[in-house]
Amino acid sequence: MRPDTPAENVDHNAEAARLERTADRYPEDAEALLVQAAAHLELAGDRPAASSLYDRLLAAQDGLENPFLVRALKAANLWEYGHEAEARAIIEGVRAAAPRDPAPWVIVAEALESHDELEQAQETFTQGARVLLTDVAEPPYSTHPLLFGRHRVRRMLGLAHDDWDTLADTLHTSPVSLDELHDPKRVWSLGSDNPAELEAEISRLRAELGTFREALSRPFPVAVLHWPASELSELLAAYPSLESEYPSHEEHLATIEESLRELSSSGTPNLGIVSGTVPSYEAFAASEGMSPAETSLLPQYATTLAARGRAVEWPPQRGTACWCGSGRVYGECHGE
């Protein structure tokens, strides 16, 4: 979500300007591009300009795909340059709306945490977990930061482990346990003269760095391409050779669900679905200098859509509509 390149290696103002120009050229991707531009402005120290970009997004006539994410980012940014009251008001609004996306919960909770509002941060992490994970057998990959952040804050508060803390421990794959990584006394070891304590801290930092790199290596989901019925009909009418790839729309939908379940059972995390359109696919093919009839182009198109933030998480959250667009609840449709 946020650029992580050190300031000495990139001109964040120039990168923000480039992203804004790109957003003007590709309005369908403006939301993701302007969020990235705002992050660059924050890294450049121009927080008022970043807030202006968030305001621009929130004022968009066509609406946003992730309005609560933008609100959460705006709140975190505002608090950093002295607008605490406004930031708190936005945070309360996000919490009251109870979004079904974990990212806004994590951002507002971490904003509270970074300003030493640990009790409020713990309550926010817990509220998010309650909204997203109650009666969920396997927490989706995107909810892991919610559980890890909650574990961290509760450890700082000295609270006893509960079921969600235990779940966070089981999801954490680093060789150093969460309890050790989140030990509030760790800071003292950095000033220790004891070689053993310093060596232990180096091991913990390496483990944290490994976890961070693993997360960065999968910044967007492994996505499977979905064609709505009308788009698939248009695609096959224009490129009949693709009928071997898509014998029927019903089979196409069944193949998507089957592929995702196979990926999940093999241990692949962070799965998603992207929906294609014929015009955007043709534009992508032209940019690659290939014919849209080439089947090898289809997975590349799916990856590009996922990188643009177009992926919908799979499996859908409990009680939400099926990814196929039938209007039925996932558990009563392809989730049966």
Automatic annotation (TrEMBL):
Pfam families: SEC-C. This is Preprotein translocase subunit SecA. It comes from Streptomyces griseorubiginosus.
